[in-house]
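Data availability excerpt. The first of two example chains:
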Amino acid sequence: MGKNTNFKLPIRALITGSILSFITAVMCVYNMMVTISSFLAYDASTPVAIFFIFLLGLINLILKKFKSHLAFSQFELLIIYSMLIIANILPTFRLFLRFIPGLVGVFYFATSENEWERIIWPHLRKFLFPESIEGIKKFFEGASPGEKIPYHIWFKPIIIWSIYFFISLLFIVSLLVFFRKQWSERENLTYPLIQLPYEIINDERKFFKDGLLWLGFSIPFLIGTIRAFHHFFPAFPNIEIMKSFPIFRNTTQIHIRLSFTTIGLTYFMSQDLVFSIWFFYLLLTLEQGIFNLTGLSLYQPVPFSEGRDLVVFQCAGAFIGFVLLSLYVFRTTFKEIIKDIKIGKRGNEILSYRVALICLLSSFIFLLIFYTLTGIHPLISFLTLIITTIIIIGVSKGLAAGGLLTGGQGSPMGVQGTIFSFLGTNHISPSTVSGLGLSILHLGITGTNISVDALKMSEKNNNFQKKIVFISFFFGLLFCIIGSFFICLYLGYKKGALNAHNWLFVSSPQGTWKYVAEIIKHPTGMNKQAIGFMTIGFVLYFILSFVRYKIIWWPLNPIGFVFSGTWFVITVWFSVFIGWLSKALILKYLGTGAFKKSRSFYFGLILGQIVCVVLWFLIDVIVGTRGNEPYWW
């Protein structure tokens, strides 16, 4: 996008983005609480945001032909998209639909058998929670017909937590300002997730007239539609796109799943990274299978590890190595930034380096105080923030390098697991353990590190426009909060949250607080086993990095090792393999010219699956069906 000297405040874009952000949040929550269909949001994926940009691109084509003065400018579309990515990732798995039921689940799921009332409740800070046990019970089970929804019991915690969410977003964006130049200009990372929306925003006419786009679009759209028809009419033929096979004497499974969005995204990633992701996934699966057969397992509980505790800690160690090496490479850029701060130079960022530093330090202090108020010891609060900062840097760079595949589901290193493993729990107070348990629910706000993509997209705009992009993040978050809280509470009290997505509203809160109770009841020392596997992963990462640096033809990218143990990769690895294979065959037999022309086809694969999923969700809402899943997400 070229520079624009128009300094007029884009009111229309902010209003449109605010409305669409609210609608996006409502759609995502309704999807998980009522239709329980294909995910409209899964961690860092933003299908609804892309769907709305797709629609706005089509509307722009019509407006430019008949009412050109009403068409959205490139900058206006950027503003809207920047708001939508925040509104798309936070309502469900990343934050609100884990946070809300988890926040009150500690009270609702407490029983005489699990003794949470005795073990956990005394250590919770009551001002952070709704105060009515009866109101919490009705949220899960549904209120009586005609009964008013007790919104008033939620006002205080919603306001308190919303302030925390805003400050967290400020902290993340301020931090990422310092890394944009290094990742975008020095390392030339590919930013796979922005390629499709950027093409639509930059030139919708050229984008939509490409025949290869619509060829790619038609494949996932038709397959998804056939699957949707089968859901409505079981006699209609179906196309299976997912199969799981038990391996290693049924101790684990290998999933074969066809995801056209994943195949499409591989086009915009380096071929060695795509290869390394599926290669290391298979290698770690083999390793975990051997552990399962030999009875080797982690002896300290870890929530939501999907039965891959040891290899996950191995990837966590590699993740630490990844961040440390990234910071070492960053040292030259860091020195330049320090020099710019001293002389007052702004830099080509949405905030000047000086303002970003002030915002970063101020928000860090606020978050430190807030964590302490939740019951966490001040030193542990500081450590929590440091680890969280490491995670934000690593996952953000992962998103810039490989999109959903290397950063889409967050970090292989968890804050709580790392602290408990290295420090043990013998000398950690129950209030600190409870506060860290609570942070499992709200640290999903780090999902806003996807704003790294918006920073990349806005780098060619002028300083005034960059400030508007910065402001737009907070508008997007505001209307995401309003939409998410309102529709979640409304549907909970009207339909009963227990009838919503089982993992989000039952398994996740139960698993979180069961984990907290176990840590409090059975304190342990330093987890040498976990530390050992993290050390192995750490060393392996540096060995892989060294070999890659010394040997030009070396095919393995160490970033693939870092993220190959995440649940997202475990689920879509086969589609990663298909994407890698298709690129390899095109390059070998058709050449680089054909490969460049096929860009639109891969765009079509991504867009076709997204449009199919969103359209069938809207149909599900209209006809009132449930469980329709053309695709996983």
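And the second chain:
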Amino acid sequence: MLALTIHNNQFVDAYGRTLMLRGVNLAGSSKIPFAPRVESDDARFYDYKNVSFVGRPFALRDADEHLERLRAWGLTFLRFVVTWEAIAPRGPNEYDAEYLDYARAVIQKAGEYGMRVLIDPHQDVWSRFTGGDGAPGWTLEAVGFDLRNMTPTGAALLHHTHPRRPPLLVWATNYARLAPATMFTLFFAGDTFAPATRIDGLPAQEFLQTRYIAAFSKLAERLRDLDCVVGYEVMNEPSRGYIGWRNLYSSQQYRYWPTPSPAQAMFLGSGFPQRVWWKMANRERARAWRDGCECVWKQNGVWDVNARGEPRVLHPDYFTRVGTSFARDAYPAFAKRFARAIQSIDPRALIFVQGEPGEAAPALHRGDIPNLAYAPHWYDGITLMARRYWHHLGADMLKRRLVLGAGAIQRSFAAQLAVFRHEANVAMGGVPTLLGEFGIPFDLHQPALLRRADEMLATRALDRSFRALETNLMNGTLWNYSPDNTFEIGDSFNGEDLSIFTQSERAQPQDIHSGGRALRAVIRPYPRATAGKPTRVHFDWHARAFEFSFEHDDAIAAPTEIFAPTFQYPRGVRVTVSDGSFEYDAARQILIYCHTSQRRAHHIRLTPAT
């Protein structure tokens, strides 16, 4: 049964059992169109009216292969990546009916494999046309941006237009650049900060939010009768843009690539060369704005040109003057609006929210949105950003400091995830938590085009993230499974290679595990459904020993189910229980445990059969 509801701060099934969701993001390559390929700087990239996402994440004829593999790996909760561009690539209120039919068919097939699906309206730095993915190109043009002048003006950095391949993750600096920062500010708080900017007669904020909600409402209408669809996120990794920026002359605090301050970005976008760090930018005096269009922020009185023809900021504190907060005001208001629209179509839908990466949870309470859940993201920071694994060197991504020593790193990782649980339980009033993204790059210690990771290093790196998840008894979805990943193209997005599957290592197509990466860490036992409250989960991948403890609930009659993969126990599993009885279904890879009522706490241990 695929039912998924919320009871107190846990996800539960139709029997009232506590669920531990283990799954994967499907897929990283869904960020870009399937056809035509648009990875080079040519006319096809900018011809957004003729792209199609049909085939992302995979062709329907290949669905059984990939879904069977994920099920065999125990990854039965899918965070399904869908971009706004995939639904409405050509213009406002113009929806790709073929893609909607395709998405429904894939998701329906996933349901047939017993999988639950969370719809992820995905974006990174707003759009493909600003160095990421998500929003269609027409949203930028509606505001007045010239898509072809993003890189020359510094309005956004696009990997494929850069003369030298930028470092991994440099795309994230786009959050502070003119085009993405402008779009996020208009989207979340245009009424406050850009009242003079209107699109088709509507305030910019109203135009953008209405079109976004309409697109995902159209998808919800196509999916509302599918029991496997359990909910919708509001937006992947939302950004505040310029909201709350204290001084427009100051650059972002954490930067690893020359990035203009907001003031410089506005000037560069209007054709005024600026020295960014040591280099003079936009010597060609290109404009980020289309002919006849003026900079949004000049239009709204943020800056102007003096009598000598020099640009100057009129209000360096413009985006803090009214006291509007992204996390307290702008994002919660939109999340509530999005939830109302989706739940008017599918009243049973859960709504998943998150704050900006590395920031506190948004000011939302379980009373604000029915069926509310918290879905933050977290990564092993040094491993992700440096593409290196060091056993004794880690980072606290929330406190932004290094951590030394293997034991200290493991404790720090667990403590970082515990912060999310605390936010969900205290600040948000007791809502369930799903770690929406975690994972590692698989081109560890390798040149960008080789990508073959040391299997032992990758396993160790990923295992310590899983152990932090298990310490906190937390639900989670790995980033990611890209069916078409290869050493050459990675996940097809900005040089990233985090997919737990690659075609380049699929040596034995008949073997369901062929092509998998770090599987000794990925395919691990976990309590899929517990007849009570889990209290401890631990898996030692070296010894393949699994330990689980829980306290039963007298009101639950259904048994506890534990995923016990044959990958870890190919010769069978030895089961030790504190009480009660059990049955192992090797075909389904499920251990069914029936506790007794004589004791409150119960313990189960799995080890390989000798």
